[in-house]
Structures are given as structure tokens and as C-alpha cells.
Specification:
The chain contains five helices and 16 strands. By secondary structure, it is an alpha+beta fold. The protein has a four-stranded mixed sheet with strand order 7-11-8-9, covered by helices on one side. A three-stranded mixed sheet has the order 2-5-3, with helices on one face. Strands 13-16-14 form a three-stranded mixed sheet, covered by helices on one side. A hairpin with a 2-residue loop joins strand 8 and strand 9. Residues about 280-308 have low confidence and may be disordered.
Amino acid sequence: MSKTRTFFSDLWYLRKTIFTNIVGVIVLTFVSIYLLMWILSFYTLHGESVEVPDLVNMKLNEAEKLLATRKLDFVVTDSICKGAGIGGLIKEQNPRPSFRVKESRKIYLTITRHSDCTVNLYYNQLIGRPREYVVRQLQRSNLKVGKLTYRPGGKAENTIIEAYVNGVPLFIEADPNANEKPPTEAKKIPQNSVIDLVLLEGVDALPQYIPNLICDTYGVAEFTIKGSQFNLGTVHTLGVVNDTLAAWVWKQSPSAGKNATMGSGIDVWLMSEFPEGCKEEDPLPIDGDDNDNGDDEEAVPEEEQIEG
């Protein structure tokens, strides 16, 4: 009897010990997790973040004060030309506005320069050069090609003889008969300036045909006009046009097919809706969709077939 009582007593003690150990493990696990989260929050400021303010178009000294109130720092990583604006303005930021970051985080800024950005242009870069070469040179220098004016004469077609900025002569071809010498010093031109060019038509130059622009988007029409050695004239709009590049040409003057001298202007009329009477281009066929039934496919002679 005493042995039986001792057995059940030991069994009860064993169950109590196991239960106590399980509870202890569970409690220890929760305590460890809590301590780990507390340690992480201590070192990484977990759960504590600030919102990045919008700094674009703000002066640098103003942005510095605003960032200091949120315990944020900044680094100027790049500068761009100020254009028509003023220097020291923030134009780009990273992280973006409203993004949440930890305190002491650095905000990377791009600001405008205080001095103008200029390009050095030389006489030999433009005068006497073909149009394609000059256009590439100007675009690489962040300059824009403006109006193209053609004059009769010259041996080579599309040769540059004059260049203007805002109507002011930049370079004019020197006349050796008048003892004129080409200038050697560079002219400083602000970036994004528009350069108007005067070109020669060439001895054998013929009148060009006006291209058909109707049913094209404005972007395509502008590319076609310049590629055909004409100038874009007046742009008219019908109704509300929110996206000019995607607007459709429904009228042009002069009309397509007429002869005109190179450099002539072409006026266009735009509308947002696809013009009535225009035909949308069919999508390109997908391989395998053209000859599903095999009726129109030409038979290939056996001797011309290539084994895979």
C-alpha cells in the first residue's frame, strides 16, 4: 500500500515539475522577445520616424532650418544650370517628400548654380559645315536649333553660312574678297539657347514637295517638317488640347504636294480627337496569325526547303 502511495506521489510531483518547466519556458520566451524588441528600438529608433518635407524650389538656407527642426541632415550631391531662375534653389531631393525616415537621415539635394551655364562656340564649328553635323553639335552642347532659312546658291546643299541668337548675329561667313578673316575666339552662349541658322540651297537644289501631315500627331508632324528641310509655322488648336505632342493634325497650309523652297514655314491645325476621315493603321501581324488556314501561303519547293 505504501509503495502504491509513493508511486502516485512521485507521478504527481513529476507532472507538476513538467508543467512548471513548460510555463517557465513560455514565460522566458516572451520575456526574451520583449527584451530583444526593446534593444532593437534602443539602437535603431524602431517605431520613431519623421516625415521628409517638400524642399523643391526652396532656398538652401531655408531648407537647412526646416530640416534642423526635424533632426534631419542634407548633402548637396549635384548642381544644374539655373536657366531663367535664381541660383541656390533646390530642384530635386531624395528621399522624396512625405517619405518617412529615421532621425539624423541625410537628404540628398540637387540645386541650381549661382552662375550661368554657358557653352563655348567657335566659328569653325558652325560656318561652312553641313546641317546634320551642326545640329548634332548644338544638341550635344544643350543648345536648340531654331529657324532654318535657306538662300539660293552655293556648291554644297545645306551648308551653314550664318548663325543667330535672339536675332543677334553669332557668326557670319567671312568674305575673303573683302579681306575678312574668320574669328578665332569663342562666343559664350547660355545653355538651352535657340540658334537660328542660315543655309545654302546648293547649285542644283530643286523646290521641295510639302509633306502630308494630316492624320499625324503633332510630334510626328514636327519631325517630318524638320526632316523635309522646312520650318514649323503657326500652330492652331481646335477646342481644348491638353497634350500638344499627342494632338492630331487635321489641317495644314500649304497643302501637301505643293512645291516650296527649303526653309518655308508650314502651318498646322491640331485637335484632341482623332480626325474624321483618317484611317487608323492596322497593327503589325504576329507570326503564325497570318496564315492560320494556309490558303494564301505559297508552297515552297522541296529542293528549297531547309531541314531544321
